Amino acid sequence: TQAFLARIDQHRNLNAFVTVSAETALQQAQAADQRLAAGNATALTGIPIAQKDIFCTLGIKTSCGSKMLDNFIAPYDATVVDKFNQAGAVCLGKLNMDEFAMGSSNETSFYGPARNPWNTDCVPGGSSGGSAVAVAARLAPAVTGTDTGGSIRQPAALCGITGLKPTYGRVSRYGMIAYASSLDQGGPMARSAEDAALLLQAMAGFDPKDSTSVDQPVPDYSATLNDSLQGLKIGLPKQFFNSQLDSQMAATIQAAIAEYQKLGAIVQEVDMPNLELAIPAYYVIASAECSSNLSRYDGVRFGYRCQNPADLTDLYTRSRGEAFGAEVKRRILMGTYALSAGYYDAYYLKAQQVRRLISDDFKRALSEVDVLMGPVTPGTAFKIGEKTSDPIQMYLEDIYTIAINLAGLPALSLPAGFIAGLPVGLQVIGNYFNEAKLLNIGHRYQ
Ligand code: GLN
């Protein structure tokens, strides 16, 4: 714990942390030492981790990357935080992220962007950018992230680490600040699939405090890491490998897939005709849900309140106007519009219908093959500032990840090589609750 705290201090320039909770971490480390001595340790006892600043932590600031919650100290722990505490893990602090998890580059954070350790002029990806930086720069051995449309997988890919977005309902959302509740899912980010398995083991499981948590037994994720991949059927969605995919990216991904063929896997093409509708459907649904979820920030109950409000309307409008950033406002406006009377059928209902078609595409494909593989991102890490003026360009960053959230499936991003010194991620998509297979596939690659 002391070594990691010192390293975090040395690498402040990476802006990975919003809060470093050194004192609590050292106390937890001491308690872990006692637990180890008493002989009732778990695999995570005494292991320093860090939490994305979207998970509520009792007594330690939870900002969600926003000025709105810059003064917010939660009165309780998120279930995920509680589970790590139960396991005896040490929490080093809270990690930088895009404001309310809306973004793909960590640039919408109120605290400024975290920096990609492979090239500090580049973004780390987002929204779990601080999480990916912390692991890639060895500021923490393993961390948490959340993924609504790609926010675990995309930064994992751009920083060269392993990230797993579990099946929707696998990990409790209790105490995880809501962005788009039907898509949000917490998961592990680590140096390897093996480490991610240990983290998921601690995070997963039914939680009566989350109404969408699924009551399914949690398998031993470490037990099957070395299973043979002989005869594994890999599907390559035709729509992922079209002319829009950069040729160097395509070559790197194909080379990674060829490694699995050497391990005995069989590759076939699959057709998923509705995939191209994922981005527009996602941005309608995610914005709609965000406009509803973020209505709770009214200047009264949580967080920021404007100075000297003239009346209640002034209190609401100025508190929200002063504390939300531009991207969050854009989403609230889009979502409110999409949900309003007269437009609801044309946008929100239509997007939900498209969502079903996309889920059906995945169901069909995953009845023919065991897993799907493809890229995580269209390119490697881009320069800070390069895409900030064009929201559509930024939204396209998630073209390969978003459909998976619409379907609620699990997917892994694993390091698959480099282009010009910057990491490339391979995405592996599995069937519902088959995280163990994804971790097995990730582990066998290394
Ligand atoms: N980039 C996507 C968005 O801005 C996804 C973010 C996420 O997964 N939290 O909505």
TrEMBL record:
Organism superkingdom: Bacteria
Pfam name, any one: Amidase
Active site: 52 (charge relay system), 127 (charge relay system), 151 (acyl-ester intermediate)
Cellular-component GO terms for this entry: glutamyl-tRNA(Gln) amidotransferase complex
Catalysed reaction equations from the record: L-glutamyl-tRNA(Gln) + L-glutamine + ATP + H2O = L-glutaminyl-tRNA(Gln) + L-glutamate + ADP + phosphate + H(+)
Subunit details: Heterotrimer of A, B and C subunits.
Stored HAMAP family: GatA
Role summary: Allows the formation of correctly charged Gln-tRNA(Gln) through the transamidation of misacylated Glu-tRNA(Gln) in organisms which lack glutaminyl-tRNA synthetase. The reaction takes place in the presence of glutamine and ATP through an activated gamma-phospho-Glu-tRNA(Gln).
Designated name of the protein: Glutamyl-tRNA(Gln) amidotransferase subunit A
